[in-house]
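Appendix B, Record 12. Input sequence as logged:
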Amino acid sequence: MHELSIANSLVEIATEYLAKERVKNDESSVVKSITLRIGALSCVHKSALNFSFELVTKDTLLEGAELKVIDVPVTIFCKPCEREVELPGIQRFRCPVCDTPSADIRQGKELDIDTIEIAENASTPA
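Logged structural output:
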């Protein structure tokens, strides 16, 4: 289950980011949410990632943070059409316009952090 190692990496990255933000801004800041861009071909199972994220954030500075996901569809380049086209699924790598096969994948393998949202910790006295 590689989702567990992904969740661990998210905690490490967000903790480092939070440490830098705390130095620049407010010592009581916490991570409110992390938004990921996950491609349809990334082989990441969202439910397993959510479960893993909840598990690894327990008793950390990210406990209670929300994990948001932006689904990224598969896009290929179709040479005959001379443009990028979005595939309706991942079963057929053929242009949905002209039915030409293509292995020129332009989008859909992503696993990127889009945003890390920081909020002031309400439980810290002012």
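The first strand starts at residue 29 and ends at 39.
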